[in-house]
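Quick one: structure for this chain?
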Amino acid sequence: MSDLTIKENSEKHAVEATTTANDVHASSSSTPSPKHGPPEIIGIHDGVAGHTEGVTTVEEIEESKKGWFAYFKTRNFYIVLITGQILSLCLTGTNTFSSLLVEDGTSIPAFQTFFNYVLLNLVYTSYTIYRYGFKGYGRFLYEFGWKYVILSFLDVEGNYFTVLAYRYTTILSAQLINFWAIVLVVLISFLFLHVRYHPTQVTGILICVGGMGILLASDHITGANGGSVTRGNQLKGDLFALLGATFYGMSNVTEEFLLSKRPLYEVVGQLGFWGMIINGTQAGIFDRASFRSATWDGAVGGWLTGYTLCLALFYSIAPLVFRMSSAAFFNISLLTGNFWGVVIGIKVFGLSIHWMYPIAFVCIIGGLIIYFVGRRVLGEARKPWLGKNQEGGVSGVGTARRRAERPDAIV
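Got it. Here's what it folds into:
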């Protein structure tokens, strides 16, 4: 071995020894807490061709895929669209069971909804207590309970006045007034939650409303708008419908806001808990006479069970739509309910489909699709009131924050 090689090896060992000594000295002289950088998300596995490596925030996820049809290339779009129609079918199911109850001589609108709140309370509040513990649940009620009292009151009264309106006014009039709920949702979201609607969203809403107008026109032509009523009852029914639509609109926006900040099981559980108390009190006051005169047999028990299960499923799935889209999309998704009602009514009530119904259905679905044109990868899951990277929100099923933290999750 040459003298030059020996010298180079000696210098190399000396450098390594010095480096090791310095590392030991640094580690022994101070023990600062470790600092970690933000977690690195390798990609967005949502069916979009190609993945953006190193995406770490909601902001970067949004910027990763651009274009007018970016949202259509994600599976979330199809989940939201299909889930909206499942909700519409659930609502149609509750209307069908209500009609069957009335045919059997049982009209107890407030009382029959009571069972839904009881079921939601048993399932979701029990799980909430399991997660928080009894002491933690008590502290939670003391601190946040008042918010859910407001939400439950809005929801219960929305149900009550809408059902009450159909006793006094025509179906056509009540459904026209229910459009006010959509208008109110858009206004409240714009003014208080700082939601800014894209022109295509406004266009989509208008197209959906136009489709509903075709449905109502068809009902008017075929005489399915509920017949004639007296002038006094018409005014009373219209006012009840307006009240119901107002409560519905406010409750939808309130629920979307709470779901963006709190766990899903907590929100639905509290809605069931306080709704059970408010609705039970109201039913005890206003439904006593109807309860005594109602028919009670096996068939009625079956209709009540079906009604409760459909409505409980509706309340359980709705939070997913509120998180992944918005209260506005939630409301326009339900506009197909008339179409599904007639489809079910063909078998149950012997109804027939007017030729305008399929046109109206296609029009509403087209409006729902146009609503998302121009949206980016996260669609409406990214809520403007939660901050740029949704740091003010909860990381739960369907949220944009969960999408950043768990890109492989289905929703």
